[in-house]
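Sequence in, structure out. Go.
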Amino acid sequence: MRSKQLGCLTPTGIIAALLTAFVITGFAFTQGGVIYSPGPLNAQAGEAIGGVTSHADIGDCKTCHSAPWDVLTMADRCTLCHIDVAVDMRMAASLHGSINHKNPNLKCGHCHPDHRGPDAPLTIATGADFPHEELGYSLRGHQQLVTGEAFKCSDCHVQSLSTFNSLDCQTCHQQIDLVFTQAHTINYGIDCLACHDGVDRFGKAFSHEAFPFRLNGKHAQVSCVSCHTNARGVIDFASAPQDCFSCHGQNDAHLGRFGTDCGACHSPEAWEPAKFDHNLAAFKLEGEHAEASCEECHQNNVYKGTPSDCYSCHAQHDEHGGRFGTDCGSCHTPKDWDQVTFDHNKSNFPLVGAHERVQCENCHTGGQFAGLSPACLTCHADPAFHAGAFSSDCASCHTAFVWSPARYNLPHPMVADEGGFGVNHGGTTCKTCHPTNVYSYTCLSCHSNNSGGEGGDD
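Output:
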């Protein structure tokens, strides 16, 4: 039994239908839309171009629509008529030139569609369709008005789509926060686009952490305008000085006497108290100097030029009354003022022998140091035994290593006789023969049978 045919849905019928559709489509395509039109063209009269005031007056589809094999594209044919736009596209500073420079693949029909009726506008640049980012300003932060309605192009481009006035920003933003907007324009001017690009680069999400100068401590609480004074653009913000003195110089309590490197003592955490590393200065704080307050040496806030010698600070406490000069460091140290170490070898009276064991006060009586005589008789008075027979040159017989016994180095009438007394008297002390003083003598202390009287002159 043969199957029932479904009308023309036979293999032959299907092939014939496809061929017919292909021919019709190809003909319409090659003829530039002569057979098929998506809708009426715009009929609004405008400036006459070649005698034509609207697209509806053109009549021939081929004027705008090109075949696939044509050299000129539809966008090229647009500029053949709209010569002013062609010139505009070559100028990067213009609206069309900026779009063409940043997105050369964008077609005219993206913003200027037609075939939507005789009264439909030829320019459609809604926020959703128009590539606003290509012009350097993003609309991501401008989706809704303060009323909650969606933005329209005319909300910002009041006069025309090709112009923009920064004052229109204030009109809208004053509705959001009047006080802030007025203060902001006073501080930074009215050219909003000089800083803002629609992505809030300098808005609430701005972070100083992305820049070399981070806001730490008290700096985090300072208003932007305090450091970025008279800033009118991104370059002005970037050129703000980063050294302390540029901002704090007018409040310098030191009046420049301590230089301009505020960070050597102060920190952003707190301006006071300040901490100065004296090891970086010529005068290092050692011993008890490290415990002294700054004001004890730097009176009246004078820092630069403060004397570093001991006497300038300690003269009023000089127990020597200036008798020992002004070089305190030759005896005293910052570790302990009372631990005195004086190198007598640097004086004109080096301490040798028994003098090394003598207390300072034995020679320096009454606290006198400077001007003392180095003569022996200053400390060692002429003993009664000498009876004034010798000069003040004690060192001719005595030494600093041991005072007694002394060696008599002058001519002696007795011990100098060769073959007589001098033969056996070499190791005899003076008091062996002179028990009382040098003017009396006796031989009987050794020679009991010898003649001669005590005190004799022979």
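Check: The chain has a mean pLDDT of 80. Residues 349 and 374 are 6 Å apart (CA to CA).
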